[in-house]
Write a structure and sequence with these properties.
Length: 302
């Protein structure tokens, strides 16, 4: 099962006179890496190299989260996303969710394995008291159990689907996220398959999201890294608005500072400051991952 991007590779490395810069049009979405880089899985394609022994980016604490939330008010942030690592490993996750929901809706990215009935019951209690809504995105790598577990580990499929079932019983709608292992032209077919799969599992109002494979982290080892000719140039935006890129309207806060986006939290050059305000400026699209975002139309949001 190949997870590398199914896109043509330019024959020659581009001549880059000037690296394009994406402007900051206004901070609409704030990402929070509450799960750091610690995960209960060791997937063979993780672009941030998250796994059970990687604590290079620590959990965000409740105090750190509240500081970002308070700062986000003056910047008119509209919604919040939390990710990791696995967010439900964070011992303060429920208090963090309560805090976020005071400010706006929150989408929770998770592999689903830790969504036990007891945890979901706590989530229901939080939602009942909250002003804003929680949304869930659970990740799989295949609709086939054996294919999925070959990438994620034994029993991951079963436990993830049990987590989805627990959310569904509680009335939460779940979005399914999958890394694309097929050609872009087949998205419509796979969307139909995935929606039917979710309906068969009694998920209310299911949605699916497909992500490209970023050739970094674990995938750079299991598939390949980026070629020198896979880079963004100004020509890439002749017929494509550069502000279509998510980094024109979002930022990623971690326990170690604020980064341009969720993809590049392990890249020192992607750290833009220690506060949100410091990052309200253009960003040069010099990393090869920017190439994947451009050619795939990628956005981390739902």
């Amino acid at each position: 099962m190949k997870l590398a991007p199914k896109v043509p590779i330019p024959e020659q490395a581009p001549v880059i006179d000037r690296v394009p810069e994406v402007p900051m049009t206004g901070l609409e979405t704030l990402w929070l890496q509450t799960g750091g880089t610690l995960c209960n899985l060791a997937c063979t394609h993780c672009f941030i190299s998250c796994h059970p022994k990687n604590d290079s980016i620590p959990f965000m604490t409740l105090q750190q989260t509240r500081a970002r939330l308070e700062e986000s008010v003056s910047l008119n942030v509209q919604d919040y996303y939390i990710t990791g690592g696995e967010v439900f490993l964070n011992p303060e996750i429920f208090e963090i969710l309560e805090a976020i929901l005071e400010y706006g809706p929150c989408t929770i990215l998770t592999n689903g394995l830790l969504l036990t009935p007891i945890r979901v019951e706590r989530l229901v209690e939080i939602q009942k008291k909250a002003t804003h809504a929680m949304h869930f995105r659970v990740s799989l790598d295949s609709l086939d159990e054996q294919e999925n577990d070959a990438i994620r580990g034994e029993n991951c499929f079963r436990l993830a689907m049990q987590g989805v079932a627990n959310l569904s019983k509680a009335g939460f709608s779940t979005h399914l996220t999958m890394v694309r292992s097929w050609d872009d032209e087949e998205d419509a077919v796979w969307e139909e398959k995935a929606l039917a799969f979710m309906k068969d599992h009694h998920v209310p109002e299911p949605q699916v999201k497909f992500l490209p494979g970023f050739l970094m982290g674990e995938l750079a080892h299991t598939e390949r890294g980026y070629h020198e000719n896979e880079r963004v140039t100004e020509k890439c935006f002749e017929n494509y608005p550069i502000t279509n890129l998510q980094c024109s309207s979002s930022r990623m806060a971690t326990s170690q500072g604020v980064y341009v986006c969720p993809i590049l939290v392990e890249e020192p050059s992607a750290k833009m400051g220690d506060t949100l305000e410091e990052t309200m400026r253009p960003f040069p699209l010099s990393h090869p991952a920017c190439y994947t975002c451009r050619i795939s139309g990628m956005t981390c949001k739902s």
